[in-house]
Task: structure prediction
Amino acid sequence: MSSLFDQPADDGPAAVDPGAPLAVRMRPRSLDEVVGQQHLLGPRAPLRRLVESDEPMSLVLYGPPGTGKTTLAHVISLATKRQFVQLSALDSGVKEVRAVISSAKRELTFSGRRTVLFIDEVHRFSKTQQDSLLSAVEDRIVSLIAATTENPFFSVVSPLLSRSLVLALQPLSDDDVRTLLHRALTSDRGLDGAVTLSAEAEEHLVRIAGGDGRKALTALESGAGAAQAVGATEIDLATLETAVAQAAVRYDRQGDQHYDVASALIKSIRGSDVDAAMHYLARMVEAGEDPRFIARRLVISASEDIGMADPTALLTAVAAADAVAFIGMPEGHFPLAQAVVHLATAPKSNAVTVAMGESVADVRKGLAGPVPPGLRDGHYAGAKKLGHAQTYVYPHAHPDGVVPQQYPPDALVGKDYYRPTSRGVEGRLAERLAKLRAIVRRTR
Result:
């Protein structure tokens, strides 16, 4: 199991605001209500040990949206019986942080009660704002729980990281999402049996959730409201589609059609049919396919099927992958579409793919041999005595920047791995490559 939260039949004594969003009402209240994240919450896992021993601790919770970072912070606070204060990096600054720290000092001094300070989206804090937390964390005046969707080793200052335990949360598995939906349908904190969910609607909810528990519950709540508005007691697929305004595309992201549609996308790009490629991209997006999976396939296609025929194709594909990671979905489908159009309409060449395949095959056959002496490292003591780098000719010292010189091992002299086509940029590259090889190999 990857993550999220199960609700027991006995929902506990705490009052629940019936007007709160379903995702809020269904939040767990103890570690035992949490389903998944077993790498953090199993019997011997670090987070459970820290909570059950009530040790002073500071955590950085890192993971995608909807995996339970905020919920886990609340559960930790309840489990440790500490004062819980929440700040958002979107609308808080150094002033608010210092006010919380001052209050935590008073609470600790007069009542002996410690404070858990939860900061959501901590990556949005500036270095100065993050630095303002250091002394309070170091002195254990507050137990910091910082949540971020960004890699904390790039977005959180090193001194704060060194004082915290970094815990990575995983996206929900499809089974976790189903469990969450079933509990929300039956729990008296949730929909309390007011509606049921058809099998098709359930599968659609799982697809559109994309591993995000909050998204799943929000869509379920919307579907329930739409069903009840027309007096229905079941949320069927049509009702759900209307409620969430997203058409159901019937293929299993873990099954054969997942791979069939992905294969069709890449083959349509390879075949330069931009319209078919756009169709398959739309099917994947509408089915709730992980956009990172789509982006990875496009990056591979840019090198495998286009290569140097259009070197900018790889730049576009990588930029699309970065854009999707930066802005997320649904807007992320625009850079994906731009990349698909670029790749499908670009001139095609698999010369890079063939060159890599043949060179790897030769290495596996044992056609390696020693590096020519002139190319060996000559920067360490004793290299000169071994004759390393003594015959090396520095190309930049020549007016053309190219000199006759043996670069490959003896067994591969004269071997042509890269054979450019005449298509696109590669056509011009073929002419230049012939001249380069003529010069470089002049000594042989």
In short: The chain has four domains: 38-168, 174-244, 256-345, 368-443.
